[in-house]
Prior knowledge:
24% of the residues lie in helices and 21% in strands. The protein has helices at residues 28-39, 83-87, 148-161, 180-188, 209-221, 224-227, and strands at residues 9-11, 41-42, 52-58, 64-73, 98-104, 121-126, 130-136, 166-169, 174-175, 178-179. The strands form two sheets. Strands 1, 2, 3, 4, 5, 6, 7 and 8 form an eight-stranded mixed beta sheet that branches. A hairpin with a 5-residue loop joins strand 3 and strand 4 (64-73).
Amino acid sequence: MATPKHNNIYRFHSFGHPGCAATFSGAFQDNMQDFLTHWAQPLAHQIEGNPTWVVHLALSQETLTLHYCIEEDVRDSPWPHCDHWRWVGWSHHLVLRCRYQFIIATSDLSLCLLHSSTYLLHGLIHCNVFGRLLSLNGRENGSKHFSGHHTMDLWDRICSMLCTRKVTVEDTVQKHSMELRLLHSAAYGHPWLWQWGYSFCHGSFGIIELRYSMAVKTRNQLSLAMRDPPHQDC
């Protein structure tokens, strides 16, 4: 594990803002290489044979969290194609030579598999600047120090800092076993992920964007009594 130097530690809640770690204006691949060279520390060992860097993010004077950046050569990967693109209608996009994975694990020891749904943050960005948020877990699923909202803020800042083009996510976020997109739509008139610019992309079962938007609007306008009708004993 790399030992962080004092000037290589960044604040968790401001990392990715302009100037922290840097302000990039070039192409994504150039931005990524510049970022890894000057603002991340290489690890002595690799993750599944892929070169790996780490960024140390400070939550307080006593607490550090590790943000891993992994460069995966698609030609050597057991998953050379991106199935996530197929689900959102991007299967016509070419899969380029490499892709970058961004991971915050629950602990150092948990970072043993490149593909896992247990990470606090797991994002993927291809060299063609299209990406995918694969998993997000907050305090209810292993995070001791920050919420899912804080993690989404961090991911959003990283994507903006590196100048990504488009990022997709399958909205399966839950709150106490309830789908958060339903709760948030009923309360605020839009899904939870809308706060970071995510919108309807590719429906299923014949659902198009217009019908989805109408359903969200209708549910938001219902009175509380109609949303939760009284239960009758059988």
